[in-house]
Amino acid sequence: MRRALLILAVLVAGCGGEARQDADEPSGEFKVEVVRASFPRVQHIAENVELKLTVRNGEQDRSLSTVAVTVETKARGDDATLAFGQNQRGEGLADAGRPVWVLDEGPVGGDTAVVNTWLAGALGPGRERELVWKLVPSRPGTYEVSYRVMPGLTGKARAARGDTSGRFRVVIDDEPVPARVGEDGEVERGVEPGSSD
């Protein structure tokens, strides 16, 4: 409940003169689900990777105006959760958040006032939408990334039981992915330097 109120306060404060993203959010329970999810289990520093989630409006006769997805990297200890990072303890830090992945590009048109939540937008009955996050791993280690889909941003609309959430356990290797420069001058990742096709 506290989280829902915090999200609502951020939305109200950050919307300026534009229409609020939660303006048409209904109350009640609605069927939304994640039908496909992929994220490479083993990654390398500086490799381009994609997190992909396909969400569906499971309602048979009702459109949903604000389907949202939250992504969180499991925090260490009591730290707050971040979308693609973790907090680092230490004195003199203006911002304790440190990226595990650098977000190169989020889902198109999906930004919200909440830093770990993106919109899938309005979905008609039975409709699906794929959300893609383009990321670059920046810190080696083993991490757990969780996701969940919601039929709204404020908690007024709740997800019915079903495949609404999941998680990935990801290992980021500190060795960069092998690469070479091809004959056309383009970087070819996943190919050892000096090897032939």
Task: Tell me what you see in this structure.
With 197 residues, the protein is mainly β. The protein has a single domain, classed as Immunoglobulins (Immunoglobulin-like, Sandwich). Helix content is 7%, strand content 45%. The protein is built from one helix and 15 strands. It has one helix at residues 2-14; strands at residues 28-30, 32-38, 42-44, 49-57, 64-73, 85-87, 97-99, 101-105, 117-123, 128-137, 141-150, 157-159, 165-173, 179-181, 187-189. Strands 3-13-11-5-9 form a five-stranded mixed β-sheet, with no helix packed on it. Strands 2-4-10-8 form a four-stranded antiparallel β-sheet, with no helix packed on it. The chain has a two-stranded parallel ribbon with strand order 1-12. β14 and β15 (187-189) form a beta hairpin. It is globular. The N and C termini lie far apart (57 Å). The relative contact order is 0.26.
Task: Give the SSE map.
Elements: H1 2-14, E1 28-30, E2 32-38, E3 42-44, E4 49-57, E5 64-73, E6 85-87, E7 97-99, E8 101-105, E9 117-123, E10 128-137, E11 141-150, E12 157-159, E13 165-173, E14 179-181, E15 187-189
Parallel strand pairs: 1-12, 3-13
Antiparallel strand pairs: 2-4, 4-10, 5-9, 5-11, 6-7, 8-10, 11-13, 14-15
